[in-house]
Amino acid sequence: MIFLETRKLTKNFGGLVAVNNVDFAIEQGKINAIIGPNGAGKSTFFNLISGFHPPSSGQVIFKGQDVTKLPANKIAQLGVARTFQTTNLFEQSTVIDNIIVGHRLRTKSNLFDAIFRTKRLRSEEALCREKAMEVIEFVDLQKVAHRPVAGLTQEEKKRTAFALALATNPEIVFLDEPAAGVNPDETEGLAALMRKMADKGVTVCLIEHKMQMIMKLADKIMVLNYGEKIAEGKPEEIQNNEAVIKAYLGGSAIA
Amino acid sequence: MSKIQRIVILGLILFAIVFPLISNNDYFIHVMTLSFIWMIGVYGLNLLAGYTGYLSLAHAGFFAIGAYSLGLLTVKAEMNFWPALLLSLIITGVLGFFAGLISLRTKEHFFAIYTLCVGYIIYLVIDKWDSLTEGVRGLIGIPAPANIGPLSFETLQSHYYLVLFFLLLVVLIMYRIVHSLSGRTYIAIRNSEDLAQTIGISTMKNKLTVFVISTVIAGLSGALYASFVRFIGPDIGSIAIVFDFLTYLLVGGLGTLSGPIVGTLLIVVLSQRLQFLQDYRMLVFGPVLTLLIIFYPRGIVGTAAAWGQKRRSSVHKTRLNNLPEEQVKEG
Amino acid sequence: MEILIQQLFNGLTIGSVYSLVALGLTLVYGILHIPNFAHGALYMMGGYITLTMMTKYGFHYWIAIIVSILVVGLLGVLMERFVFHPLRDAPPIHDKIAAIGILLFLEAFAQFVWGAEYQSMPTPYGQVVEIFGLTFTMQRLLIVIAAIVVMILLTLFLKKTFTGSTIIAMSQNREGANLVGINTKKVAMLTFMISGGLAAIAASLSAPINLVFPGMGHLVILKAFVIIILGGMGSVPGAILGGYILGFSESLGATYISNDYKDIIAFVLLVIILSVKPTGLFSKGGH
Fold first, then answer.
1. How many domains does chain C have?
2. Which residue is closest to B202 within chain A, CA to CA?
3. Chain-chain contact of B108 with C100 (C-beta, under 8 angstroms)
4. What ipTM, to 2 d.p.?
5. Whole-model pTM?
């Protein structure tokens, strides 16, 4: 069974077609990458899958279930996590405090539990904290776990955002330009972390501009240009694909 | 909570309890009771504006709904105070639910303008609906809370303790909400609604819950006000009241737990000192509000907390610096 | 029939005032995305300054209005420089609170200087004229004519002059405007100047038929907000059209529904609009 797929996914903004008839299948446990020139519709594609925008037409199928019309929070509960280009973290708060709430969707306690400090709340709080520590360890941020996010480096912030996504117990994470604004050494580190996630069984799908990293890291690549899929395949296939080369050289890809 | 914090809080509660005994000045006790009532209302506003980031300008309206519900139920329907209080809170909550259902679909500017208008509609209805609310004449003769067994609330002192009890209850509830998974959820929404949704939080459901609680607390504050002052007019629903709340909250610290107490107390005391200014106190507080939001947007409590955190983290940093093998990264 | 025409004319008068106030509000919103809650206080200051110039210094009505435009415009510029500019990167809740602080201050200031009582403004145009068998006061006619002239001048300024077109450019795309070398600081100050000036004109024109008092801006500003949500935040034609729509609905509502509740019409209108479309009418959808 295909893990996650899009069928003829399309999004119009006014008269503009941002994503056009894209069929894409994501394989479980692999690292999938979406590349393409600026404005190719990559982020919009992410927003459609994660439920931020309703698509104009087409479908998103996750593990055999049609999730096209579900809101973002419902999709997250099914096990689809994502990060943003800007990390959007709560800067004044510590790393761990940012991450604890990531496991909230797996808990049930409500306001009643909060006001009366019920057993359920206490055990679930402990659970969330444990989960937070676990993912902090996974992304290797133990040293800064109790520091405010504002004082972290860009790379550490990216790791925190990863950890927050992982705290939701996802089966697949969508990473929007995870290595943007990060130096080459640190990029290596983040790539290793993504590999570690895939090895642990969390499927990864990322948008990235850093070609070298993608070609080394990805198992499968899809290329978007002007909202349309122009190529799909293994890194070496993509590297030799003429349409892709044309698109990146600035000419029109649609021959 | 640290040990020092516990001691300070216990000390403050103790002081609040013995205050009427040592003060013996009815005027001071009166002012104190009123500021407790304001504090409750400010806590209501704080939960919404401070922890979820939605600035509601309709809260004077909900304060007035609480006050008028209690007033009308006790005066016109001649209900006993306690069931009337409960019913007033329910009325405020139900109206808050519907107001929230619509207004929370809007964001930022639209939300502020929308709630400003909702507040004005509430004020206008109270002002114009003569046959029910007595309009500009106001509602007179609201009774003091009815006795509970041997407890009577006829005297100023006993009323003071009653209001104090409700204030402490509200603070306790706030503390527990803020320090729970629900509280973390609200803060996540304030921080970024997009991010909150991607980690599986239903933002609308949570915002609506907060909106309703926050209006109920504003309603409680209004109901207590009505039974304490015994007379209410449409003015209590005017925008000026919401601006007062906002000033108290901002001076104390938006999104902090002790902010509402610190801000309200400080401004009320200052207002007493500035009695000669009377109607012109906004000459001072208006610029204070503006300057504060520019230079100290986190208020007294928030600024103090940030200062403390800085000191702690600089201590932490020097400790790290002393370890030769540690590399401390500058952010 | 006569009543209807009389009411339609009243609607035109009120609508003219609303449009002028809403125009100032929408210009500022377009440029800086600030809902300026203090705009009503500028309107109020405009009324008081014109009144003082006339009664205390014996200026002619028109000279007094010009002084008022300059003073209130300057007040707008000061607000931009010292309050909104420093807050441009702050969370959205902050500029609203800052504006409320200014509003509170200006109202207390007016009460301190001029007192809390209602004052009436004399006008050289108190006479009554008769057109087609209907009677109008000159002042009301003047409001309508002056408002239309001001709106035409403003539109010409925005469309035909370079400075005006920079305002439009900046409201459409701030970063872009910055890139093509528009001095965004100057444009922001200019916009606040115009916005304050428009508020002063509106207040000075309407004061003779209403009254001058510290809270005179409250309802007007609330309604102006409704208008710009109705007409699209930042839209100039929307503000003008919305102002007249509200003016007509109010004057007709006052006659045919209830005079007591006429002020509620605007807010009910707003509640309906935002219930159906939370981002306001005519907003550009999508991300």
1. 1
2. A73
3. no
4. 0.89
5. 0.88
